[in-house]
Amino acid sequence: MNNVVLEAKGLNKRYGNLTAVQDLSMQVLEGGVFGFLGPNGAGKTTSIHMLCGLLSPDAGEVLVRGKRIANGDPAVRARVGMCPQKIVVWERLTCLEQLVFIGEMYGLSPSLARQRSEQLLKDVDLTERRNQLAKTLSGGMQRRLNLALALVHDPEIVVLDEPEAGLDPQTRIQVREFIRSLARRKTVVLTTHDMEEADRVSDRVAIIDHGRLLVLDTPERLKRQVGEGDTVEIRLVEARADGQVLAESFAALNVEAGLEDGGQIVKIRALNAVGRLPELLGKLESLGVPVGEVSIRPNSLEDVFIQLTGRRLRE
Amino acid sequence: MKALRVAWKYLLEFWREPQLLGLALGLPVFFVFITAVGYGTAPRLATYPLAMVVEGGLESELPDRLADARYPDGRAVFSVKRLDSAEAMDASLKAQNAVLGMLVRESLVGEPELVVRGDGTAMAFTRASVQLERILAGDTRQAVKLVETPLALIGAASDFELYAPGMIVFAILLLIPQTAMLVGREVREGTMTRLRLSRLGAAEWLGGLTISQMLVAVGQVLLTFAAAAVFGFRCRGSLLLAVGIGLILSLSAIAMGLVVGRFSRSDSDAINVGSVFTMLQVFLSGSFFAMPGSTLLEWRNVPLGLYDVLPATHGNLVLQQVMIGGADLALVWPRLVIMAGLSGVIFGVCWLIFRR
User: Fold this and answer.
1) Rounded Cα distance, B123 and B162, in Å
2) Do the domain assignments include residue B244?
3) Does B193 touch chain A (CB under 8 A)?
4) Tens-place pLDDT, residues B212-226
5) For residue B144, what pLDDT band results from cuts at 50, 70 and 90?
6) Same domain, B318 and B206
7) For residues A206 and A209, what is the distance between their CA atoms, to the nearest angstrom?
8) B21 domain residue, yes or no
9) Edge-to-edge order in the sheet of strand B112-117
């Protein structure tokens, strides 16, 4: 189960003066979902393109089961299936035609390509649309077809680049379920800037920013690095600047507190925050801080990212 | 096998794209129609209307001589209409009731002289003047005997027929914008990336695309030929050889389309830039109008000039030789070899651009 299926060793990629990826090394283990997270522009797509063999790194190498992928054997490259973020379908081919076509391009026999295509159409709930031109499908259907196109050759590793981007809630649930079922049979590499999505489906998570790998671990361990328990966010009526005073006051209660969002929000991390809420609010009252809106949530990967970089994902 | 599947995919996409269908199949037929109407389908050895005035009391046998003049096949060279005055003759020329005006008058020194008038920019005037000169030369009993033999092996060709091979070249060169559109779309929409990720090799992809476009070229040649045949065109040589020439020429057009498509940013970009390449070659190759040129070198008795760097120049010439002159492969092979070589060079550039 702990076999390494995909490995990046010291990957570097530059575009002129811009360093897109810097010394990226990581291992993806067989089975499950590997979340590859980072804000927009962090270098995720460049890394993914190198992992799939679409882009040659300036330095370093990518290994699939120990074999180099870039400029190597097409059979090695074919062990990876990629579902790009942008919908990439042949608009003037029917769903079935393009699945069979790309299957044959991966070297499947026409009969096997057809058989797999029919099954995939069923899996992504497009059987009734099998003979419809892709351009006539809705956005959600096209995205499901986009996903099926990455799978028709039955790759060992499936790379999904922001698979939930732009989906309506219903289709998002369908896609998420499909990813989970996929992860039971294959190794899934999921790139996203949605930490909640990654948290829900990933077994291991790598966070990348400014082209560098920041952390790689299970979501639970990463969240534990931030602190056990929950996060309480209290919006203040008036902004404050005395973050240090607040932090020291709350330290006496054995919780971690600080100001965020220009002094508008007090952020407190505490075990059993719900039970301790009256105590926490009472502390603020004793400090003469008028309280507005209060929210409580478990620690998230977003908190991990903020702790690592000092900024929110979408900043 | 993969190349054939790629070819099939492109043909399907082509068939389902009305814009491409119209461009590839409709436009050449439309141009054939325009050429047939514009240049006329009458044989080139036409009977030219001639307006003639004999002034004063001059006696001249010339009107009768011109009216009796015949081509070798027995048709009259001129239909002579006698008018009363130079003014009436001019009016007839302006109204295009005559292509040539002839005035017989007394010169200042008292001798009869001939004045020939007409529109110098009109092809019909030029040709009628040549015929007139031939007859008058005969009249002066010169030693040189002008024997007119049609270029075609079977009878005379009309203006329209002379332009028909050019129309076929034009149809084939339309592969440039149409290939550019298909390839550009594949690159821009990311489906090329899908193909790159697969086990499809660059040679298989290029081969598949080329096969599909060559099949379209065969369709274009046959359709253009059929449209021309409707307007009276007769292929003097082998149609099969003409199609073969078209196929070799199509290689260069497809290769140029690949290059344009690789760098186009939209469908309209591909069509516009591709069409510029098409029209430039159509004109420079002499497909629409004969281009002046100087011979830079000679190979196998084939004079080569500046425009011969274009495969279309050779394509146009050999198509004319085969379709109008009835030439066979033994005569046209040197230019076919040159055309294939030039196409190979352009394809080599494509290979460099599109290799993985």
Assistant:
1) 14
2) yes
3) yes
4) 999 998 888 888 889
5) very low
6) yes
7) 10
8) yes
9) B78-83, B48-54, B100-106, B112-117
State the greatest distance between any 2 C-alpha atoms of chain A, in Å, as a whole number: 75
Q: B175 with B303, same domain?
A: yes
Residue A209 Cα distances to A26, A37, A73, A100, A312, angstroms: 14, 9, 31, 38, 12
How many domains does chain B contain in total? Answer: 2
The minimal CB distance from B198 to the residues A78, A89, A90 is found for: A78
- If you measure CA to CA, which chain B residue comes closest to A80? B197
pLDDT given for residue B327 in this prediction: 85
Question: Which of A71, A82, A92 should we substitute to test contact with B (largest number of B Cβ atoms within 10 Å)?
Answer: A92
ipTM above 0.90, yes or no: no
Tracing tokens 């010394």 back to the chain, one arrives at: A23
Same domain assignment for residues B190 and B307: yes
Q: Which residue has the higher pLDDT, B172 or A307?
A: B172
Mutate which: A48, A80, A104, vs B, most B CBs within 10 A? A104
Q: Which residue has the tokens 């004999």?
A: B54
Residues A34, A179: contact at Cβ < 8 Å? no
Q: Is B16 on the interface with A (CB under 8 A)?
A: yes
Question: CA nearest A159: which of A300, A35, A311?
Answer: A35
Residue B147 has pLDDT above 50, yes or no: no
Q: Indicate the pLDDT class of residue A58, thresholds 50, 70 and 90.
A: very high
Name the minimum distance, in Å, from the CA of B351 to any CA of chain A: 17
Averaged pLDDT, B144-148: 41
Minimum-distance CB partner of A93 among B12, B197, B200: B12
A83 chain-B contacts, CB cut-off 8 A: none
B201 to A74: CB separation less than 8 angstroms, yes or no:
yes
Q: The domain containing residue B62 runs over which residues?
A: 48-139
pLDDT tens string A87-123:
999 999 999 999 999 999 999 999 999 999 999 999 8
Beta-carbon separation of B191 and A92 below 8 A: no
Q: Does B291 map to a domain?
A: yes
Q: What are the pLDDT digits (tens) for A245-289?
A: 888 888 888 888 888 888 888 888 777 778 888 888 888 888 888
For residue B145, give Cα distances in angstroms to A240, B46, B133, B148, B336. Answer: 113, 21, 12, 10, 36
Decide if A106 and B16 are in contact by the 8 Å CB cutoff.
no
Question: How close A94 comes to chain B (CA, Å)?
Answer: 10
* Chain B residues inside the 8 Å CB shell of A105: 2, 5-6, 195, 198-200
Given CB atoms, is B97 within the 8 Å cutoff of chain A? no
Dihedral over Cα of B120, B126, B132, B133: its sign: positive
For chain A, list the domains and their CATH numbers. Answer: 4-218 (3.40.50.300), 228-298 (3.30.70.980)
